[in-house]
Amino acid sequence: MIQTRHPSRLKKGFTLIEILLTVAIFAIVLAAITGVFFTALRLTMKANDSFETSLPIQHALMVMKRDIEGVRFPGGIMTGSFQSLDTISDGSTANIGTKVSPFLYTAVGKNNDDDASWSEMRKVGYFLNVPANHGGSSGKDLIRAVSSNLLPVNVEEFSQEWVLGGIDNVIFSYYDGAAWIDSWDSTLTTNLPVAVKVSFTFTDDQKGNSTKTPLELLVPIISQTRTNK
Predict the structure, then answer these.
(1) Which in 40, 117, 135, 229 has the greatest CB count within 10 A?
(2) What pLDDT shows up at residue 46?
(3) Which candidate, 72, 73, 103, places its Cα nearest to that of 87?
(4) Does residue 125 sit within a domain?
């Protein structure tokens, strides 16, 4: 016996309008997902760029803060005067750059009062120098010059450490307890400033846009009169 299918029982397929409508809905959803994905990707890249930019700055601020906090009171064999306008006649720092800080006689890595801190004493100065391989880019390098030999010598030897690049200027200011002043000389005031402020300005890019906002580092100085034993 041959069975025939009734036309009403046949399975219906999708119409052209239904297919077009499905494709349109899928395209809208895909476009929305793609937009969200690329927005998240741009935010991630921007966050990474900000982190990579701020990391060297945070390191530079940490190093300078440590050096300033460790400054020891002037006097004795292992410490010298705190002078913002001091100069060196032997030319030992002439090849480093333009000095922007006083020479800091600082107990690097030591902030306590034990006698061992004197074995960690360093003479530290900060300089600005135009990099030799700047490639046409603007900005100067901040160089940290360190001398480990604090005994009297004919010519001082400084090791150099790159701290930060892309700098326009670095200015040190000193708080005397009443006002901020531009210079300090411990041979005249017989003491250290209450605090030191370091102001950073950065260079602009080739389009004239500021690459970084100006920064200020404020460091209080807590140092007692000490003598070497």
Answers:
(1) 117
(2) 76
(3) 103
(4) yes
